[in-house]
Amino acid sequence: MRAGTELSEHPPVRRPSRKGRKEAARPARRQDGGRRKREFTARRGAMIAGFMSPAVIFVAVFTYYPMVAGSQMAFRHWDLADLTDTSFAGLANFKEIFDDPLWGTVLSNTALWVVASIVPQLVIGFALALWLRRRFRFRGLYQALIFFPWAISGFLIGVLFRWMFNSEFGVVNDLLMKARLIDEPVAWLADPHTAMVVIIVANIWYGVTFFAIMILAALQSVPDEVYEAAALDGAGKARTLFQITIPYIRTMLALTVLLRIIWIFNFPDIIFGTTGGGPNNETHIVTTWMIHITQQGDYGKASALGLLVVAGLLLFSVFYLTATREKGAKS
Amino acid sequence: MNTKESTAGKTVRIVFLTLWLIFTVFPLYWITITSFKPPGAIFAFPLSYWPEEFSLDNYAGLFDKAEFGTYLVNSLIVATVAGVLATAISMLSAYVLARFEFRSKGALLMAALVTQMIPAFIALGPLYLLMTDLRLVDNRFGLVLVYVAVCIPFCTVMLRGFFENIPDTLEEAAMIDGCSRFGALFRVLLPVMRPGIIAAFIFNFVNCWNELFLSVTLMNSDDNKTVPTALNGFISSFNIDWGSMSAAAVLTILPTMVLFAFASRHIVQGLTAGAVKG
Question: Which residues, other chains included, contact B238 with Cβ-Cβ below 8 Å and sequence gap of 6+?
């Protein structure tokens, strides 16, 4: 109930601050500098607190509190099968994860899922952005059309691709057979290797747009004079791209890639809608495996896995940011 | 970019753009076509790429057998209310984060970033217990509260980018002219911010409309279910009824696509304003 009281404190925190601001405003005009400054500082502080508090309270109560409570489950026995013993378990849940025969598969799947999704997303997105920079007829319509995948939930995208790659009535098999690329229908989702291909293709379909948009915006920040100067110096297209365009938008590119890596890592939705981690649990990534463990009722182990994800992503972000920043300092 | 383009370059560009368009649109085309096929024709060979007869049976079935209308209304209410609330709250925090320097600012921004790294599933159990204590399980208002919290961090960062793009001088001028800071915010900044606010709202709405795992956890009665929860129910059964599924998918996708088509330019601006500045 602690969170409940926090919630009910919410109006009293804001109300005095708003009143305080009005009162402080009037005498400040007449009084001497010292007092005015002090009151200005107080007013400013009250305003910052007042404006920030709704957001902070919401996120604290409904995101951080459950997350912290969930994290401490990682160090307890917490299994729906036996709730009589929720004692402190130390690192037993973590040990259980590392000893699990699926752990290796899950790790390599996660790495494959992230790398094989992000590289084509980046390359195709970059190409789209370069080509969309040019004006052409129907460019607005084109942009709106290729934007559509972004409006669809990951889960539904999984469902769409599950239907298209259906072994009997799937349109992909039909098209491939018409093109004589395969002789008989492929049971895409029955084999873990082809199933991984399907979920990665679905993810590329979904994620390219984001890169295209972000890179297009970054490209527009490169001043035309830079290109004109490069053209005067006789730089070719490839040289302009690698020596002017990419270095110019490098920081933004690095941040976009980082954000996408974090999101893709934490994106069980497509897999959940397509294979659900199957066949035989062989297409799980870390987060879908976590769902699987939760559904089995072992909240302790699932929380431990969640903590590993957060820790891994934090570590990765720090390394990544340091690496990209250092490279920037040198060049 | 006004440089001349070679014919070969132009051909490559057109071919590539066309292929990508086909690849992007085809899945949507296919699910739509499937939804209009009469139930028998979905599982008939050869596959037809344009149905001989368009049938609304799959759609009619959704509203007869399942309470799909109720789910749609629930989703609409929850996503709209949560979208509006999250946008309003994020506007306040984004404004402060864009305009003031204060000690905890870095920590707050970091806290917003960390929420993006947390797998939702780590919080689901405790969240369910919290909502039970608050008597907000299986309650649309409860789901709204949770969604608002989910939307705030990204929405704040996005709107902050917009505020930063607006020069300080605009409000300063208004404040010199006798506006209070509130007055400056509402009368001068908001009109300028409109594209950003629309983008933020649509972004929040679509995220809430599409959200699955929280709503599956928190909503269990048929009267309160949202659309994604219902779709998940179609999947859980061993035999997926692809007719109903495709019709339901089309009905789910349609509203968000219309919104995106209507405001895609604003959303592009919104996303990039928030992130390019980093």
Answer: none
Report which DSSP code applies to A101: T
Rounded-to-integer distance, Cα A136 and Cα A142, Å: 10
Q: Is the whole model's pTM more than 0.90, yes or no?
A: no
ipTM of the complex: 0.87
> Taking a C-beta distance cutoff of 8 angstroms, is the pair A159, B242 a contact?
no
To the question of domain A92-330 being in CATH 1.10.3720.10, the answer is yes
Q: Does B125 touch chain A (CB under 8 A)?
A: yes
pLDDT tens, N- to C-terminus, chain B (278 residues): 445 667 888 888 889 999 999 999 999 999 999 999 988 888 887 888 888 788 888 899 888 877 889 999 999 999 999 999 999 999 999 999 998 888 889 899 888 888 887 887 888 888 988 999 999 999 999 999 999 999 999 899 888 888 887 888 887 888 888 777 777 777 788 888 888 888 889 989 999 999 998 998 899 888 899 999 888 888 876 678 888 899 999 999 999 988 888 777 777 776 666 554 43
All structural domains of chain B with their residue ranges? 1-55, 57-276
The CATH-assigned architecture of domain B57-276 is Orthogonal Bundle (1.10)
Within 253-292 of A, beta carbons closer than 8 Å to B belong to: 255-256, 259, 262-263, 266, 268-269, 272-273, 286-287, 290-291
Tell me the domain boundaries of chain A: 2-73, 92-330
Residue that is written with structure tokens 């309650």 in the block: B139
